UniProtKB/TrEMBL annotation:
<keyword id="KW-0732">Signal</keyword>
<dbReference type="InterPro" id="IPR037167">
    <property type="entry name" value="Peptidase_S11_C_sf"/>
</dbReference>
<dbReference type="InterPro" id="IPR012907">
    <property type="entry name" value="Peptidase_S11_C"/>
</dbReference>
<dbReference type="InterPro" id="IPR012338">
    <property type="entry name" value="Beta-lactam/transpept-like"/>
</dbReference>
<keyword id="KW-0121">Carboxypeptidase</keyword>
<keyword id="KW-0378">Hydrolase</keyword>
<dbReference type="GO" id="GO:0004180">
    <property type="term" value="F:carboxypeptidase activity"/>
</dbReference>
<comment type="function">
    <text>Removes C-terminal D-alanyl residues from sugar-peptide cell wall precursors.</text>
</comment>
<keyword id="KW-0133">Cell shape</keyword>
<dbReference type="InterPro" id="IPR001967">
    <property type="entry name" value="Peptidase_S11_N"/>
</dbReference>
<dbReference type="InterPro" id="IPR018044">
    <property type="entry name" value="Peptidase_S11"/>
</dbReference>
<keyword id="KW-0961">Cell wall biogenesis/degradation</keyword>
<comment type="similarity">
    <text>Belongs to the peptidase S11 family.</text>
</comment>
<protein>
    <recommendedName>
        <fullName>serine-type D-Ala-D-Ala carboxypeptidase</fullName>
        <ecNumber>3.4.16.4</ecNumber>
    </recommendedName>
</protein>
<keyword id="KW-0645">Protease</keyword>
<dbReference type="InterPro" id="IPR015956">
    <property type="entry name" value="Peniciliin-bd_prot_C_sf"/>
</dbReference>
<keyword id="KW-0573">Peptidoglycan synthesis</keyword>
Amino acid sequence: MVNETRVYTTRKSENTKETEASEKDKIQEPHGLYAQSAVLMDAKSGRILFEKNGGQKRAMASTTKIMTCILALEYGDLDDVVTASTNAVNQPKVRLGVVEGEKILLRDLLYSLMLESHNDAAVMIAEHIGGSVEGFADMMNQKAQSLGCKNTYFITPNGLDASDKNGGHQTTAEELAQIMKYCIQDSEQAKQFLAISQTEIYHFEDCSHVYKYTCNNHNAFLKMMEGAIAGKTGFTGEAGYCYVGALEQNNKKLIVALLGCGWPNNKGYKWQDTRKLIQYGLDSFEYVMIGKENISKELADIKIPVVNGVPDNGKISGKSYTKVWMKYMEDGENTDSAELEQLLVRKDQKVHLQIVLKKQLYAPVEAKTEVGEIQYLLDGNVVKRQTLIVKNAIERRNYKWCARKTVENFLL
């Protein structure tokens, strides 16, 4: 943040118990997972609540299609007419079974993509939105980069195993969860994405009304746990069984991402891991109101020295200081809006608070200059930050100011 800082104070949140949990009372993390890589994420904050090899790069199979779907929703028109190419027709199973030249509405292809995981539908969508599979892959990678996914690389729109000079078609469990977070919450098309993902059965025809199709949703998680809102399965020989899904219950929104979760004949492993991780999130975490520490009162006692600043007493001699405020405080007023801030915390964990500030400032200082931050820590890791600023501008105490002040004092 800044080169010269000091930790002003450190203490426990008032929302937590006074004593640390004993080893007997300590909550046990999920164990015995089948997945090679697994993540449980708090979708509201994007914070990882649990991970097993969460940053390990692995093939992702048809979980890829959540990115294909969201890009089609963002860059396409649902009433677009999409034509099947030779490349699309020749995709391996699982496929819709289109014939070359067949025309289908984009909206219908998205149900084919998400409910049945059809590989030919994915290629039709990619070629229509990106001009080619390669062009669409570039769009996928650009979107991944914009979401902060540095270990994700897309080559195909359907998730089939592939590699090129830049590496393999792969992601990590952490980044797959991050992409799902974008799809169900952050994208402007999140509502439409959820509507498609939650559809149980969908019927449609091609544009010539010659071919009729029915798509059934294969996401068993939707019926497995109350509050399940989205998900996508996947399997390839390299990736194994994969899954990414989301649930919203009791004001919690949780995402599970699994990679390498068994190989034939262990298709059900992913559902066991998903249930175990989601139940852990529901049972072991609770929201704390991190603003109830009444931080504004604590900040009232903090002042930062301002070198060569106009003295607080308004006289030529004296020292200059500035008070510290939270960035959201309108016009520097102390408000209780911090009480609305919530943090999802495991029940046996303690939230710690520390204030990190610049040791001193140098005049002139502009109003609302950022001078530090409030940090909320769990197990030594910063999980939330709030920016601190100065309220008013501070003039430099120079010859011109001293001369003016001398004249004012003489006149008075």
